[in-house]
Amino acid sequence: MPSPRISRRHALLSAAGLAAAPLARSQAHRSAAGTRQGGALVTQIVDTSAAQQDVSKDLLIGSRAAWQDINARGGLRGRPVQHQTLETDGSPAGLRAALQTVRENPACLALTGTAGAAAASQLSALLRQEPLDIAHAAPWLQNAGATADRHTFPIFAPRQEQIAHALKSLSSMGVAEVGAIYASAQEQSLYREDVERTASALKLKLHSYGGADPRALGQRLTPGTPAILLYIGGTPELVQFTQGLEKQLRQRYVVALADVNLQTLQQLGAARQTPVIATQPVPLVSASLPVVRAYRETLARLFDEPPSPLSLAGFIAARYTFEVLRSVEGPLTRQSALATFSRRAPLDLGGFRISFDAQGRGSGYVTQSMLTTDGRVVG
After folding, report:
1. Percentage of the chain surpassing pLDDT 90?
2. What span, in angstroms and rounded, lies between the C-alpha atoms of 333 and 109?
3. pTM, full prediction
């Protein structure tokens, strides 16, 4: 019997409240019961705080689509995979509570697709401190400074790679001058050095701008500000920044990074006068690669959602986790799963190639899409 299509609201409400410890433990118990019947259990921790929820929700949608499709095709060793979701509020205490839920359920084989970027980075740090040997597979780990270790297996290009790709694209188009917009002091302290070093290597003249109010920052730009702006920040701040740019007479082009959700910008009516280009560490959602075709077909069949780079990333994260678990020799345990992930074997996921480098990262792959002023997402 075909699975019913599920709207985003229905899918997300089904996981609502998992940040509360009693309910999280209750779901973990139900999943463990499924595992005792012969299935496998994996856990996805997602940060649903205001700053991260648009990224986390899309990544979660893609992961759920993948796991449902995997189970419809026989699951793992002929048994269904239990995909447990634990939500956090973005606080260190919330993340520790989620990790404690995992610790208390030895049936959980691996952590997979942790989202968003802050939660993925914090969880990687926690796993270096905690005596918990478990694989942390394909997290949305955007900070290259958070290096991979014996627990963490990042497969997506970090922000530094995305910045380099964006600036190289601009220099190849003959652009000689670029502005860098930092949504907060934190982004500026983390990424200014990378942006300046890359711009210098490409012989691009760089002007840096920052401020506590993104809308006011957009309004403050002068006619002498570069027309091409590299934006470092999240979707909510970019919405405000483009609203500020509407007061400007000069045409601007904004180049953002993968944490910016073009579909959310589109829904909120942002960028009505300013085209926004976003980098993404996955193939274009319109690509003909087998993994992308499988993603589009699965998403259309199971969810009432348009394709997006972030949900494609969630789909790929789940598929990567499944392929490694499928290659485990002998009994499926947390220890055997970690040992198999630790081999960091190259993998071709339907055209998305994962091959770990000396720093333990699996891909430097970056593409770009654009939200045009007429509301279309191109690419």
Report:
1. 61
2. 6
3. 0.88
C-alpha to C-alpha distance for 181 and 191, rounded to whole angstroms: 11
Q: Are 248 and 218 within 8 A, CB to CB?
A: yes
Question: Is residue 250 left, alpha or beta, with left meaning phi > 0 and alpha meaning psi from -120 to 50?
Answer: beta
Q: What is the 3-state secondary structure (H, E, C) of the chain?
A: CCCCCECHHHHHHCCCCCCCHHHHHHHHHHHHHHHHCCCEEEEEEEECCCCCHHHHHHHHHHHHHHHHHHHHCCCECCECEEEEEEEECCCHHHHHHHHHHHHCCCCEEEEECCECHHHHHHHHHHHHHCCCCCEEECCCCCCCCCCCCCCEECCCCCHHHHHHHHHHHHHHCCCCEEEEEECCHHHHHHHHHHHHHHHHHCCCEEEEEECCCHHHHHHHCCCCCCCEEEEECCHHHHHHHHHHHCCCCCCCEEEECCCCCHHHHHHCCCCCCCCEEEEECCCCCCCCCHHHHHHHHHHHHHECCCCCHHHHHHHHHHHHHHHHHHCCCCCCCHHHHHHHHHCCCCEEECCEEECCCCCCCCCCCCEEEEECCCCCEEC
The maximal CA–CA distance of the chain, rounded, in angstroms, is 67
- pLDDT tens sequence across 168-199: 999 988 999 999 999 888 888 888 988 998 99
CA distance 35 to 144: 35
Torsion of CA 108, 57, 152, 90, to 10 degrees: -90
Residue positions counted in the chain: 379
pLDDT tens digit sequence for 291-308: 999 999 999 999 999 999
Q: What is the pLDDT of residue 196?
A: 92
Render pLDDT for 143-163 as a digit per residue (tens, 0 to 9).
766 556 889 999 999 988 999
Amino acid at 173: M
